[in-house]
Amino acid sequence: MRTVDLIWKKREGGELTAAEIHFLIQGFVDGTIPDYQMSAWCMAVYFQGMTFEECTALTLEMAHSGAVVDLSAIPGIKVDKHSTGGVGDKTSLVLLPMVAAAGVPVAKMSGRGLGHTGGTLDKLESLPGVSTALNRDAFLAQVSRIGIALAGQTGNLVPADKKLYGLRDVTATVESIPLIASSIVSKKLAAGADAVVLDVKFGDGAFMSQYDKAVELARTMVEIGKRAGRRFIAVLSDMNQPLGNAIGNSLEVAEAIATLQNQGPADLTELCSILGGYMIWLGEKADGPEQGKELALEMLRSGKAFAKFREMVAAQGGAPESLDHPERLAAAPFIQEVVFPGEGWVERVDCRALGLTAMTLGAGRARLDDVIRPEVGLTLKVKVGDRLTPQSVLGEVHAASPDVAARAAREVLNAIHLASKPVAKQPLIAAVIS
Ligand code: URA
Q: In this protein, which residues make up the domain named Pyrimidine nucleoside phosphorylase C-terminal (predicted)?
């Protein structure tokens, strides 16, 4: 087999066999296929696409390019979740304890934030003492003991994706649905769960902003997951405005704690209960997603989800008492209210711009090696459809210095667009693909 022939075949719109894809991925990982040939192949995929057979072969090849987590020692159906990333997305912190409290074991490996979107590990680590660096044995032992662990990646999972993503990032080939779907699903397969609920976000603050493209991505991932022998369900959720009210690590943790105490923002509670409903159903603790949703909400109302979160925090080195005083979490030295001068109905929110504002305050990373500040960020209490009167307080900016706070407050104001007539509220969930 010659790499050049496989590049040619894909360039001409041909379908590669599983053996040909194996040859490409193996060769790329072991260094016998150089970056320039793999880049050319990625570009050919970008223009020609891939069939579901090819996507599945690529995904399985990548999933098995390194270590694979074996969760079989943990009793029960293990259900994972994945979000394609958004602004203010603290869903995992609420959802996973809800699901674990309902009796579905959760062994979740999360990532860090980059660009305008945040990462669950950074958020969790803003709780004093909490470690997300669990080794494989500690991770599995914790899930067996208390039914939940939320940690960074353990072991060398999916090295092919790391290498391929690095290449795609510098060759303008990230935005290819077959390559994105294979990248995400390969990591989920390697993480070992039996079933996966995908939160595929669309809208201005999402990785995949166009709704149609997000649907196509969701369909592709669900199909690959099924062909790989796992149950996959995708929920399409709106990211045209931040989820909840807080953006920034400590602020988001405080909001997650309030939500776990059943006092959180309505949109965050709704998303967590819907995703939780599917996870609990897939974990066979409910007869359907609706019953699963009721059970998920019951875990909030009864305090069982919060108790599970406390258990997880304690198991990972934190002090559960700190959760009783979220106001004592790291606080920024300057807090400025954002006051809106105009009047009307909120028509649109520049969600990505708000994510970038939080990032430049220090809540996120522009580059992988940037150090984040847990205490900074912003809150935005208004949603599309809300009516604003002059001097309405939109929220707050939490910053390291007064001038940075003032600049960020101006950016928040610029991100809110008003209409002179009432504006309909948008549904949070647009579709479910199974
Ligand atoms: N997220 C991933 O994990 N992979 C991609 O290719 C794009 C987004």
A: 345-419
